[in-house]
Design brief:
- The complex is a heterotrimer of chains A (about 290), B (about 220) and C (about 190).
- With about 290 residues, chain A is α+β, with helices and mostly antiparallel strands.
- In chain A, about 35% of the residues lie in helices and about 20% in strands.
- Chain A is globular and about 80 Å long.
- Chain B has one domain.
- Chain B is about 65% helix and about 0% strand.
- A two-stranded antiparallel ribbon of chain B has the order 1-2.
- In chain B, helix 1 runs parallel beside helix 8, helix 3 packs antiparallel against helix 8 and helix 4 crosses helix 7.
- The N terminus and C terminus of chain B are likely disordered.
- The radius of gyration of chain C is 17 Å and the shape is globular.
- The chains are: A alpha+beta (about 290), B mainly alpha (about 220), C mainly alpha (about 190).
- At the A-B interface, helix 1 and helix 5 of A face helix 3, helix 4, helix 5, helix 8 and strand 2 of B.
């Protein structure tokens, strides 16, 4: 870099020519890589999303992305309008609505905790929880996806709307371990209160924004929209999803800078190794 | 970077980076990704391979263009070339496995500023023909991967009781959690360097003619 | 989720300190931390470059997103950072040649300081707003300076201690950094909010 102060020995024309040549070569390389991997990347993202949604909504076979705005709901396109809230509608094989999934995020002990939760329109309750990303202390904060008692909170967490449909009837609240009394309260994990609270705040924040926009328009989502080739789920995945871990409604993918070794989604005891192999197998099928 | 460089055979060129000039343990370069992603063996190896790809690709291109690139703009050119290959590897990893991509996160893009790569481009590829540059880069990449694995493996075994995600010690193992937390990275790398120092000092005691202290980087 | 500026500041300065928790900027951390009087200017220069990089990255990100050229993001960031470093270098050379010589090779190496590119990449990934990004960059730079100063203080004291030959050099610095990092873990949870 300090060469800039030396008297130039190369005419600037030559420099510009070389830089132009290098830029062209680099540009071609980048665009080739981008174009070449685009399909595979999109397929991967689709599968990751489906895996995350299917874990919180067991039995779902198809996922569609939507955004909810003040004027209604619409399929998520390239441009997301200001103030819109993204959510996912999950359908079963027959095309009936299985549930809604959405993401929530809040600051935890070390960094942001992102969760995916399932909303059951019939019960007006949160019916499943998965962790999208976090880097909380291993062995403490990660109890939010290993602690059975904590996950019980999300079998039917009440998030019904108030009578004017403008807000939640009761804000989701995290209470001290062992003091849960109402259906909208979350019993915190003893020793991991900060992380538990982050989960609660994340869900509350997201549900507070999403549900008043979503619930009045639920009718539109009742049946799957006209199938388009893009969103159809490939058969091997459905088989894997149901045979794999559909009994546990949780997912755990890793975030950037994660402090944890990559782990497969939670599976019944003894199923971890199997899960890994299944994932590897899946990855092969996707890329080939 | 390589003192008293003689003409090496192709094999020696390849092995140079794996052992004698190991970027992690001897030159202590590229520490940020080394420590940040080495929480598990899987992450470490993926990162090592990604870096190797960038290293080989960019040294090859730099070496091809070595007679065309004017001295005044060489660093800028190298950085652009490196950034290109990093962008390529970024998309490749996304296409191969999103799980790996999420685990490595921003550190894939941070390969751009890994001193090993710029160091190789400047010190080796700009002076040597493509074949030798690629061999050298392959060796360096392998050395980097081995170093990362040595770190990631130890941290995963101690901190989680696993290797490549497979449980090693059964359910009764109490993980040494601090090893997968940031301090563990510093401690494990420090311990490895200590081991190499000790080995070196034993060698010097045996043959006092040779100078010790291979890693005088900082 | 919208993080408050306070949360970003405290979190980035202490709980997620760039050097001690995120492993960004380790080369200068180990390289320039031998003496206190070079550590401070190095920290200040890096903080300045971070701020410039953060500003530019914000604008560039808007540009590449608007024109759907996301694949050019990384290249444009690194080119901007290299230019910013060149600028700092020229200013320092003109106004403080002594400092310029003291920082030596580590000054141009700010270009390849992952902390600087890290600021640009993380603020993009976290979708920070303009003020959030600036807070993030400031806190990141100050955190880097803090870690550098602590390390330099420790190493100056260490010069007076008798350390076995085997341990000296990088190995010892890394062990020290590990202890510092352990201490900084105590800050986790700060700014988590209720």
């Amino acid at each position: 870099m300090s060469e800039a102060v030396l008297p130039p020995v190369t005419p600037s024309g030559a420099m510009i020519r070389t830089l132009g040549l290098v830029a062209t070569v680099c540009g071609v390389l980048i665009v080739t890589a981008y174009e070449g991997t685009l399909d595979a990347v999109n397929a991967n993202k689709k599968i990751a999303l489906e895996r995350a949604v299917f874990k919180v909504i067991p039995g779902a076979a198809k996922v569609d992305e939507y955004v909810a705005t003040a004027t209604g709901i619409q399929p998520a396109g390239a441009a997301i309008p200001e103030g819109a809230v993204k959510f996912y509608a999950a359908y079963d094989q027959a095309g009936g609505l299985k549930g809604i999934a959405a993401e929530g995020a809040a600051k935890g002990y070390a960094d942001t905790v992102r969760v995916m939760y399932a909303y059951d329109p019939a019960k007006q309750a949160v019916t499943g929880l998965g962790v999208v990303s976090m880097r909380e202390t291993p062995g403490i904060g990660d109890k939010i996806y290993t602690d059975e008692a904590f996950l019980k909170n999300f079998e039917a967490l009440d998030v019904q709307l108030s009578s004017d449909m403008k807000a939640l009837a009761n804000a989701v609240k995290v209470v001290k371990h062992g003091t849960k009394q109402n259906a909208w309260e979350i019993d915190a994990i003893s020793g991991a209160t900060v992380t538990s609270k982050a989960v609660g705040r994340g869900i509350n924040e997201s549900a507070r924004k999403l549900l008043p926009l979503l619930v009045p328009n639920l009718e539109k989502l009742k049946t799957a929209p006209s199938p388009n080739a893009q969103s159809a789920v490939s058969p091997p995945f459905i088989k894997g999803g149901e045979g794999g871990f559909s009994t546990v409604s949780i997912t755990h993918t890793l975030t950037h800078l994660s402090q944890n070794p990559p782990q497969p989604p939670l599976s019944p005891p003894g199923g971890i190794e199997k899960g890994w192999r299944w994932q590897a197998h899946l990855a092969e099928e996707v890329t080939s | 970077m390589i003192p008293g460089q003689k003409q090496l055979s192709n094999l020696e060129e390849l092995l140079e980076g794996v052992w004698k000039q190991n970027p992690v343990f001897v030159m202590v370069l590229g520490m940020c990704p080394t420590l940040a992603v080495s929480v598990s063996a899987m992450n470490a190896v993926s990162m090592g391979l990604a870096t190797t790809f960038v290293l080989v690709g960019s040294t090859f291109l730099v070496s091809l263009l070595r007679n065309v690139i004017p001295k005044e703009v060489r660093i800028a050119t190298y950085i652009v070339i490196i950034a290109t290959f990093v962008t390529v590897v970024d998309y490749l990893i996304q296409a191969i496995s999103l799980a790996v991509y999420d685990a490595l996160g921003a550190f894939i893009q941070l390969i751009v500023v890994n001193c090993i790569i710029l160091g190789r481009a400047e010190a080796h590829a700009s002076k040597n023909p493509p074949l030798r540059s690629v061999l050298n880069a392959l060796g360096m990449g392998a050395g980097f991967t081995v170093g990362l694995f040595a770190l990631g493996g130890v941290r995963e075994i101690l901190g989680a009781g696993k290797l490549f995600g497979f449980s090693l010690f059964g359910p009764d193992f109490q993980p040494w959690v601090v090893m997968v937390l940031p301090p563990g990275g510093f401690f494990v790398l420090g311990a490895w360097l200590l081991l190499f120092n000790w080995l070196n000092s034993r060698k010097t005691d045996a043959a006092p003619a040779k100078p010790a202290e291979g890693h005088a980087h900082v | 989720m919208s993080e408050s500026l306070y949360q970003i500041f405290i979190g980035t300065l202490l709980a997620n300190n760039f050097v001690l928790a995120m492993f960004l900027g380790l080369c200068p951390f180990l390289g320039v931390s031998a003496r206190l009087n070079t550590a401070l200017p190095m920290g200040a220069a890096t903080t300045f470059v971070m701020l410039v990089a953060s500003l530019c990255a914000f604008g560039l990100n808007w540009l590449v997103t608007t024109f759907h050229l996301e694949f050019l993001r990384l290249i444009s960031y690194i080119v901007i950072i290299a230019s910013a470093v060149q600028l700092v270098e020229m200013v320092l050379k003109k106004y403080s040649p002594v400092l310029f010589r003291a920082l030596g090779i580590y000054l141009p190496l700010i270009t390849t300081n992952c902390a600087v590119l890290g600021v640009a990449l993380f603020q993009t990934a976290r979708e920070y707003s303009f003020t959030q990004a600036l807070t993030f960059a400031t806190a990141g730079g100050l955190g880097f300076t803090l870690a550098l100063l602590l390390m330099a203080g420790l190493r100056e004291r260490l010069n007076l201690a008798s350390v076995p030959n085997v341990v000296q050099g990088t190995a010892l610095s890394l062990m020290l950094a590990g202890l510092l990092s352990l201490a900084f873990m105590g800050f986790a949870g700060l700014g988590a909010g209720e």
